[in-house]
Amino acid sequence: MHSSITGQYLTRYQRLDESGGLLPVTGAQRRFVLVRSLDRAGRPDVVPLFFAFPRGTVDLTRLRAAAGSLAALHPALRARTAVLRGTPVQRLGDAEVPAERVESAPGEDAKAALRRALGRWPADGTPLRLYLADDGPDAAEEVLAVALDHAACDGQSLARITEELTAAYRDGLGPADVDPGRVAAELRAYREAVLLQLAAEERASAPAALAYWAERLCGVQDMTPAAGVRPVPAGLPTGAAEVRIPVPAGDGVALPFPALLEACRAAVGAVHGPGHVVPVGYPWGGRPAAAEPVLGCFLNTVVFPAATGAPAHRQAGPADPAGDAATAWWDDLDRADTPFDEVVRAARAAGATAWSGRMDALLTVEDRSRRAPLRLAGVDGREVSVDGRPVRAPFAVSVSQGADVELRMVWDRALTDDAAAHDAFGALAARVRSALPSGPAGPVIAPAGHRPTS
Fold first, then answer.
1. Three-state DSSP class for residue 301
2. pLDDT tens per residue across span 1-17
3. Are 233 and 243 in contact (CB under 8 A)?
4. Which of 106, 109, 210, 368 sits at 20 to 30 Å (Cα–Cα) from 448?
C-alpha cells in the first residue's frame, strides 16, 4: 500500500498534537523547514517589500502597533515553526512585530543598512518585521522594509498585508483593538485551511501522479557548482539586471506563462550550453476551494525540466522535456498539488540520482494590479528594489506584469559568472520580447503572486 510523505506527516502531527496546542504545516512550509535545516547558517527564506517614503512620513510607534494588530488577528503572523521529534509544527507566539530604525554604518546608504538588518534575521524570531533606514541626515527619503518569513506568507498574503497594514495605520489600531471573537474564528479558519491543503496534497500524491513526475523529471540533473569552486568577486554577493518592456497593446498583460518558461529555458541554455536538463522551479497554487482566504503559505514549488539547446517547435510528451513548454505544462498543472518532496523522491527513484532537489533557476510572477501600494499618513509608498541580497539558486527571474512587463534577474556571483549571467538575461529578454503579441492583449494564465526570497 502506498504511503505518502504527507500521510506520514499527518500521522506524526496528530500524535504530537494530543492537547490541540500545535498547528500543522503545509507542504510548502515543510519544504522551507528542510531548506533552512540544510543551510549552513540556518537562514530562513525572507520575502521583503521595500517602500520609499518622504522623510518623516513613517511614525514607527504607530506602525509597530498597526503591525501588531495584524499579528494578533492572523495566526501565520505570530506562529513560530519548530521541529518536534523530527516533525515540523507551528506554535503560536505573542503578537509582537519589531519595527525599528536601522542606523547606517559609515559608508552605508539606506539599502546597505537594510541588507545588513535582513541578513541578521534570526530564524526563531517573529515572522513579520519592519525596518526603516535612510541615506543620512540630509536624505529626502527613507526606505521601509516590510519583511516576512516565507513560511508565513505567499503572494496572496502579501496583497492583504499591505492593504490591512494601510488600514490599521490609518485607524491607529493596535493588538488590543482586535476583537477576541475574530481572533478565535481566524485561528479555526487557519487550522482548517492547512488541514484542507494537506488533504489535497495527500490526494495529489497518488501513485499515478508520482509516476507522471518520475517520467517527467527522470533526466534532471544538478548544474549548480559546489560552493567555493569559483572565487567570489569583489562587491555585492549578487548581481542584478532589469528591463521594462512595453506591451504593444498598451492595455495590460499579454504574456502566457509557458512563454516565460521558454524564456527561462533560453536563459539556462546561455549559462550551461546544450545537452542538459536543468531544474527550474516556480510557485503555483492557492488556498483549497473550501478554505477561507487566510494568510499563510499555500504555494507549491513546481519543477520545469528545461532541456537546453532544444528546438522550441518540437512537440513532446512527459518523458521528453525538450519539446514545446506549453505542450507538457498543461499536464503539469493537473498534478501541480503533488508536494515538492514527493516529486523529488519520485524523480530520484526513477533515475534522477544526479539531482539533489536543488533548483538551478527560479521563476516568480506577479500581477501588479492585484496589490495596492502601502499607504501611510496619506502617502503612497514607492516600491523600490534592494540589490545584493542572497538568492537561493544560481539565478532567479522575477516578472512583474501590468501596463508593461518588468523583467528582472538576480544571480549568485559565487555560482554564476557575471558575463554568463548577462548573456542569460539577454537571451531571456529577447525571448520575452518575441513572445509579446502585436495585437490586443490576450488572457494570461499565471501563478498566484510570489516574490523572490533571500
1. strand
2. 468 999 999 999 999 98
3. no
4. 210
Q: Are 230 and 394 in contact (CB under 8 A)?
A: no
In our burial notation (b when 16+ CB lie closer than 10 A, e otherwise), range 305-325 reads bbbbebeeeeeeebebbbbbb
- CA gap 173, 142 in Å, rounded: 23
**In this structure, how many other beta carbons lie within 10 angstroms of the beta carbon of residue 348?**
18
Decide: 14 and 120 in contact? Cβ < 8 Å: no
Amino acid letter, residue 14: Q
- Give the residues across from 150 on adjacent strands: none
Per-residue CA distances from 267 to 12, 272, 278, 285 (Å): 42, 9, 11, 25
Distance between CA atoms of residues 368 and 449, nearest Å = 9
**C-alpha dist (Å) from residue 359 to 5, 182, 302, 340:** 21, 40, 10, 12
Q: Which amino acid is at 153?
A: C
pTM: predicted TM-score of the whole model, two decimal places: 0.89
What whole-number distance in Å separates Cα of residue 84 and Cα of residue 297? Answer: 20
What are the angstrom distances between the C-alpha of 214 and each of 175, 211, 220, 222, 407? 48, 5, 10, 16, 32
Cβ-contact 12, 25 below 8 angstroms: no
Q: Where are the beta strands (DSSP E) in 68-191?
A: 79-84, 87-92, 99-101, 128-134, 141-149
pLDDT digits (tens, 9 = 90+) for 278-330: 999 999 988 999 999 999 999 999 999 999 875 444 434 444 454 566 678 88
Residue 159 CA to residue 301 CA, distance in Å, equals 20
Q: Give me 198's grid cell.
A: 494537506
Cα of 446 vs its chain's centroid, Å:
14
* CA–CA dist 42, 151 (Å, integer): 14
Could you give the 3-state DSSP secondary structure of residue 289? coil
Cα-Cα-Cα-Cα dihedral sign, residues 114, 116, 117, 121 = positive
| Euclidean distance between CA atoms 157 and 69, whole angstroms | 15
Contact 153, 165 (CB under 8 A): no
- The three-class DSSP label of residue 375 is strand
Please work out, in degrees rounded to the nearest 5, the angle formed at the alpha carbon of residue 221 by the alpha carbons of 215 and 227: 155
Q: pLDDT by residue (tens digit) across 344-355?
A: 999 999 999 999
